[in-house]
């Protein structure tokens, strides 16, 4: 799951590929839009596309041509001359506003000439079903990526400050989760955006093994050298933190807790082989992610 609350996720600087119109390998008519293009997954998708020579338009509020899910006047300009789009809705695909917004965006995209839509969704999140349906019914070639929880939530997202403070408090109990790496998600997204054979597919994307959130935090402690532990809390306790600590409105907190109750009931405690089949390699293991992130100074 992306867990990308806009007020809580640390975003890396964007603009690397913004403004590109042509490259030596691909024409401007093949421009690919990457929404949430400065976030954990979108940034990696944009970087990989640019490395392959595709013109990329980064969709973000800070881009040269700004894009904002809540400001529909920004949609048409970023969709001009776009052949394919990576669609990642924030704050969450299961948000009550997501389905109608994504449906309107998808319809405008198709009307603007976009032929292919790749939606990043969340594995097992029933609240995401209406948004997924909006893309499937858009008339475009579509692929839906249903992702497990991101590794990078621990060093680029909501859990980062908790790791640095020594305690990751979250209402996951001992549920098992096949954490997936954002790099694997990005590689699969690029395939779906640029190659044939993925239209009409729902891809459930996981890492190679199951861990509890406690296992994940223990792994980070081992490789970072930090004294950090997992603190299981109730949904109500976590909701109070979101309201008081992050200023989330009560309505949004309630919707988020409903999503967590679904995702953290054990339904996702199964590993898939989709990443291996599509990329012809093993998915990145959480221990390898933690080792590399620690070596890069993620938790200094």
From TrEMBL:
Annotated region (Disordered), positions in chain: 1-22
Domain of life: Bacteria
Record-annotated NAD(P)-binding domain positions: 37-195
Coiled coil (UniProt feature): none
InterPro entries, alphabetized: Ergot_Alk_Oxidoreductase, NAD(P)-bd_dom, NAD(P)-bd_dom_sf
Protein name, as recorded: Uncharacterized protein YbjT (DUF2867 family)
UniProt organism field: Nocardia tenerifensis
């Amino acid at each position: 799951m992306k867990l990308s609350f806009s007020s809580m996720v640390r975003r890396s600087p964007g603009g690397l590929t913004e403004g590109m119109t042509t490259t030596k390998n691909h024409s401007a008519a093949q421009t690919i839009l990457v929404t949430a293009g400065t976030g954990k997954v979108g940034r990696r998708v944009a970087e990989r596309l640019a490395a392959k020579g595709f013109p990329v338009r980064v969709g973000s509020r800070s881009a040269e041509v700004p894009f904002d899910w809540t400001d529909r006047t920004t949609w048409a300009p970023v969709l001009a001359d776009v052949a394919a789009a990576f669609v990642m809705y924030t704050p969450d695909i299961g948000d009550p506003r997501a389905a109608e917004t994504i449906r309107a965006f998808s319809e405008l995209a198709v009307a603007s000439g976009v032929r292919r839509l790749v939606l990043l969704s969340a594995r097992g999140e029933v609240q995401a079903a209406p948004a997924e349906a909006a893309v499937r019914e858009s008339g475009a070639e579509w692929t839906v990526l249903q992702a497990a929880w991101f590794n990078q939530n621990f060093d680029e997202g909501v859990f980062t400050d908790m790791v640095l403070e020594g305690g990751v408090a979250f209402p996951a109990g001992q549920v098992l989760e096949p954490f997936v790496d954002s790099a694997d998600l990005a590689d699969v997204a690029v395939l779906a955006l640029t190659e044939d054979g993925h239209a009409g597919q729902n891809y459930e994307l996981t890492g190679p093994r199951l861990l509890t959130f406690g296992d994940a935090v223990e792994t980070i402690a081992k490789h970072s050298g930090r004294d950090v532990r997992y603190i299981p809390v109730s949904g109500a306790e976590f909701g109070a933190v979101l309201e008081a600590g992050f200023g989330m409105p009560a309505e949004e907190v309630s919707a988020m807790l409903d999503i967590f109750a679904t995702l953290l009931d054990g339904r996702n405690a199964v590993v898939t082989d989709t990443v291996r089949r599509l990329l012809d390699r093993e998915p990145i293991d959480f221990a390898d992610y933690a080792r590399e992130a620690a070596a890069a100074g993620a938790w200094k």
